[in-house]
């Protein structure tokens, strides 16, 4: 490969890799900037605890299948929904 061809390949690759370096969505909380996904994840974990509380209270936790897959999936679902509602 000649040097010109290599340059023609490397420059577009660098440009594509740098397109994700835009401003990260963040929120100012008491003077510190936190990434939005971290806030959504924290709220999602709290909401997942409430889901577990209600499932245990109404004796429905045995109906949801493997809990090791169910609760992380609930956290991911709540994280994505919260991000879409509040920050998109």
Rounded Rg: 21 Å
Describe the sheet with the most strands: 2 strands, antiparallel
Order of helices and strands: HEEHH
Helix fraction by DSSP (H/I, runs of at least 4)? 55-70%
Strand order, sheet with most strands:
1-2
Q: How far is the N terminus from the C terminus?
A: 44 Å
Strand content: 5-15%
Overview of the molecule:
This protein is mainly alpha-helical and 88 residues long. 67% of the residues lie in helices and 9% in strands. A two-stranded antiparallel ribbon has the order 1-2. It is elongated, with a radius of gyration of 21 Å. The N and C termini lie far apart (44 Å). 7% of the residues are buried.
């Amino acid at each position: 490969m000649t040097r010109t061809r290599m340059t023609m390949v490397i420059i577009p690759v660098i440009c594509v890799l740098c397109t994700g370096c835009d401003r990260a969505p963040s929120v100012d909380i008491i003077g510190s900037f936190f990434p939005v996904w971290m806030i959504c994840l924290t709220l999602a974990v709290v909401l997942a605890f409430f889901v577990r509380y209600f499932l245990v209270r109404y004796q429905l936790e045995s109906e949801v299948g493997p809990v090791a897959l169910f609760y992380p999936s609930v956290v991911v679902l709540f994280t994505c929904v919260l991000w879409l509602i509040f920050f998109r």
